[in-house]
Amino acid sequence: MTTSTLAHADARRTIPGTPIFDGPAAMQGYALNSMCFSFNDQANREAFIENEEAYFDRFNLSEAQRIAVRNRDVLGMIAAGGNIYYLAKLAGIFGLNVQDVGAAQTGVTVDEFKAGLLSHQVTISQQQECVA
Amino acid sequence: MSTVVGGVFTSHVPAIGAAIAKGLQNDPYWKPFFDGFPPVQRWLQQVKPNVAVVFYNDHGLNFFLDKMPTFAVGAAARYENADEGWGLPLFKPFEGAADLSWHIIEQMVESEFDPTTCQSMLVDHSLAIPFELCWPEAETWPVKIVPIAVNTVQHPLPSPARCLALGRAVGRALDSWAGNEKIVVMGTGGLSHQLDGERAGFINTPYDLFCLDNLATDPDALVKQSSLDIIEQAGSQGVELLNWIAARGALTGQVEELSRNYHVPISNTAAATVLLENKALVAA
């Protein structure tokens, strides 16, 4: 945690349960997000699967980032500066989709997470005759 | 003289691409979402636009945190998709309307916007999925594109008012373009959804309906708040609404809603599809 982060902390708005990926987070998470960005390449995904620890070294991950990835701890990755758009590529390597990731962060089962989404189920459709 | 014929607004969830690849359009989970597209497809068949100006957000394919533009305009003759990290089948390439791109860039800067210009640019699912939905039978895309990427990833994000003003600057550029193209504007992403944090799974239908109800008639109602306010109301990734707001701004004429479809849930998302027609204002 840098001084500048703390200096800004009071002034920064928080939204409960909602990470705001701002400058300090982007600086803190740069190594982890760089690693995830590298997974756009199939060969890099394979190298990660082959030896995670060596791959951490290649991107110079912080200790907190390594622990979070080892534990498959999504909230820990976010706390260590991970951004969900990049973490989604890592989740893909683990075979996890956004419902799996959502359940992991909210402390419910995947079925319960899906049920939560379905509790909002609604379909509203309307159209003018010219395109009907 | 070119004509801006209207706007197509749609969610761009990656799972939609997977559902298309698996042919799940009539699956009970997916059908209520895909049912929103036949009116859009019919209209596109009738109107036959030949250029699409697309407001979208890159998800870590073309842009990384090393260089993150707030607004970026593609100015290439061709755009390709690439592996986004999941090894999915690639989307078909796009032909670029590079002349129009440079006209838009010139007019944007004239309007005091300062975009990043990209002569080489990969485009991700956020741009491509709407095309798969709009022209499902196309072997090659019937439109050339101008991609305009909005930063919805790294804060500070542009304000909603700024995005609407940007869209209006693009709209003025399109209205002043001397070519004879028919131009459709597209805005992709949203509506309410959140992938990250303890609030993951957040959906806010009342707010989504507020946005849908005002998109055609009063877009200024959508920009009275900050981007953080939108995140509070629509979720972290619901802020992709900024792409819709910018696209709406590019419709400068008389705008009428021809169809809308809103369905919850698709993946983690409140999915929406809207078709707006744009008619040039008649001088009084």
Give a short overview:
The complex is a heterodimer of chains A (132) and B (284). With 132 residues, chain A is mainly alpha-helical. Chain A has helices at residues 3-9, 23-28, 30-38, 42-50, 52-59, 63-70, 74-79, 84-93, 98-106, 110-118, and one strand spanning 122-127.
Key features of this structure:
heterodimer; A: 132 residues; mainly alpha; Protocatechuate 4,5-dioxygenase, Chain A; 5% strand; globular; B: 284 residues; alpha/beta; Protocatechuate 4,5-dioxygenase, Chain B; 8-stranded mixed sheet; two-stranded antiparallel ribbon; 10 strands
> Architecture of chain A, CATH level 2?
Orthogonal Bundle
Count of individual helical segments of chain B: 9
Mean pLDDT of chain B: 97
Q: Low-confidence segments of chain B, ≥5 residues, pLDDT <50?
A: none
User: What structural class do the secondary elements of chain B suggest?
Assistant: alpha/beta
Q: Can you summarize the main beta sheet of chain B?
A: 8 strands, mixed
Unreliable sequence segments of chain A = none
- In CATH terms, the superfamily of chain A is Dioxygenase LigAB, LigA subunit
Strand order of the largest sheet of chain B: 6-3-7-2-8-1-10-9
Which of globular, elongated, flat, extended, rod-shaped describes the shape of chain B?
Answer: globular
Query: How many domains make up the 3D coordinates of chain B?
Result: 1
Question: Which sequence of SSEs, written as H and E, runs from N to C of chain A?
Answer: HHHHHHHHHHE
Q: How many runs of DSSP E, i.e. beta strands of chain B?
A: 10
| The CATH top-level class label of chain A | Mainly Alpha
Kindly estimate the percentage of residues of chain A that lie in beta strands according to DSSP. Answer: under 5%
Percent helix of chain B, as a range, is 25-40%
Give me the secondary-structure category of chain A: mainly alpha
Radius of gyration of chain B: 17 Å
Overall average residue pLDDT of chain A? 93
Biggest sheet of chain A: strands, sense, closure?
A: none
**Top CATH class of chain B:** Alpha Beta
